[in-house]
Amino acid sequence: MTGQVEYELRKAGTGLPLRVVLKDILGGGAASVLTVTFGLSYSLLIFGGSLSPYLSYGVAATFIASAILAGVIAVGSSLPFAISGPESSTAAMTGILASSMVERMLAVDPSAPVLPAVLITLAVTTILTGVVLCCFGMTRMGRAIRYVPYPVVGGFLAATGCLILLGAVRVITGHSLEFATLSHFSDPLTFEKLAAACAMAVVLYMTWHRSRSTFGLPVILIGGIVAAHVVFWLSGLSAADAQAAGWTFEPPPSVTIMLPWTVEGLFHYPWKILAELSGNLIAVIFVTASSALFNTTGVEVATNREANLERELNVTGIANVISGLLGGYTGCISISRTVLNFNAGGTGPLAGLTVAAISLLMLIFAPTLLGYMPKFVLGGLLIYLGADGLHKWIVQSRRRLSLTDYISLLVIVVIIVEWGFIAGILIGVVIGCTTFALSASRIDSIKFSFDGSEYRSSLDRSREQLSILAAHGGSIQGLNLQSYLFFGSANRLYQHVKALLARHPECRFLVFDFKLVTGVDSSAAYSFAQIKRAATERGIRLVLVHLQAATEKGLRSSEFISRDVSIMPELDHALEWCENEIIAQHEGRGDEEASLRDWFVRILGSEEEATELIHRCERLEVGAGDVIVRAGDAADSMHFILDGRVGVMIPTGDGELTRVRSLGRYTTIGEMGLVSRTPRNATIQAEVASVLYVLSASQFEAIKTESPVLSQKLLTFFVLVMAERLTFANRLIGVLRR
Q1: pLDDT tens, 40-60?
Q2: Which CATH number fits domain 443-586: 3.30.43.10, 3.30.2350.10, 3.30.70.980, 3.30.750.24?
Q3: pTM of the model
Q4: Which of 37, 69, 461, 503 could be a cystine partner for 331, CB 3.0 to 4.6 Å?
């Protein structure tokens, strides 16, 4: 029999196994219990107080919205098992919008017909919300909501929970909780109703909140209704008496469907009041957008499925537009209903379509259900939802937030409850930006600092030049900057530079490395101008390295960069230039080109061995850019650099060569290859016109055989050269590990 049914389903074109279909219908049916229960409570939340005579229209609008949202989003969502509908946060905002509309209309004209205006307002708001969501989805601007400061989002949602609590009190007692209405809450019957609702909320918390079982919430709500009627029966209260005492709702005779787009309604609509309600309208849009994003993320986590965020915004926007056109109001994907459907086995859009079908059926059965629905059951559900939001965003968030952020959240809650959502959001964003600026200003903008005696360029220099740099390296002071520089962090940088120059009065070159800087705020230019002024007064040259185009443009526009500020592409070249300036100042005006003989005498300590070495070397003159040896060639010689400069080049991933080391006059290269006879591991290229003397491998072998003393001295010199280079490398590593 089952096989026959499955065959018929496949023949009908569904292509789905019967088991999958039944699971989708079962999951959709379970989610429908929540949709119906929530829908009735949201109807009472929105159409309460002055709008209570029009509850039948509110029930119709609720289940029209539930059906459209569930059906459209189920078909178009990237999560096919998604269940959507009005949410507590969106319903609370919609209720505030409706009550504000009624208050303003009755203040102007107590006899004005409020229902057509309210329905048009809800419809326009829902359509605008849908359009905004579609724009967010198509432009990917929906992700921008993730940049809203967390305390603002938390304060917004906590205030929403507070407003749901206040709405629950109005649903249960029929009175708003205000100072002017406190006398109504002294009545014992009113107190009993509130106590019963609070007891229902406690039961929900103690059972379903902790277990989160699949069918827990529907069973508890149905059980609450049955228990209430048992208590009424034991107390001798009939259904009519319970309704008369306010324990249950007075059902409307029927659900009345009324499209908002009537000629008379549009003609008499108070459009001026709509402008005054723009703040609440924006709040509805913001809540729906944030709820759609946050709920989608929550469903992803709960079901371990990935959603297409842009697609979710687009389909939610389309569903809201259709809902508004047909007289519904806003909504989005629901975490609780979607997870309930998923846990019940629902995996396809048929579950959402089941919810849509049952929501449409409720347009017929809702009045009957309301007649048997105790107020404290739905009111308790609203109290639970509001208290759960307050607990999540006020109690639990305290563990996640710093004291400053938490105080900001509380302030935003108070502002929203007292002056409205727009004031709360705007002031919250200001508070969030201020808090962020203060926090960011505490981040050290200096990754590490160095001076020329411990951190040098890769250019190999003679012992005499190294001695000069060791003695006068403090003339070069460098700062490796990081993060984003703005008025706060830039001012701290200025204070650091002032203290640095006070500690090192010998400083003549101040190097700033911008490699790790992500950006410079225009307000930071003032601090850099102060740094420039302090450096100019002491005769210090500023050198800027790794300056990005946008940063350079900003500093030039503030006239910080001028002729007396040097800009270098790399730190190595900048250090080399500073070192050359220092060496030129301290070498004097004597003959800078020492003879080859004098150099070899200093190396070997003997004129006789220097003469022999000269005879065994071959003079080589190269021009700038000439390749002396190539990587991979046999190491059959070494080079003494008498004049000029050569670079050690290695290939990069894109086929280009990059310099890893540079060697100047009175230095050597290739000595280790000459000893080990391993192939060249780098290309050596002349950077400027240079004069070198080449000692071939054959001549070196002849020296080892014919002149053992000279051979020993050369090997000792090679060891000293490698030791100096190793010492420099160790110091460099030490600086980079700071």
Answers
A1: 778 878 887 778 788 888 888
A2: 3.30.750.24
A3: 0.55
A4: 69
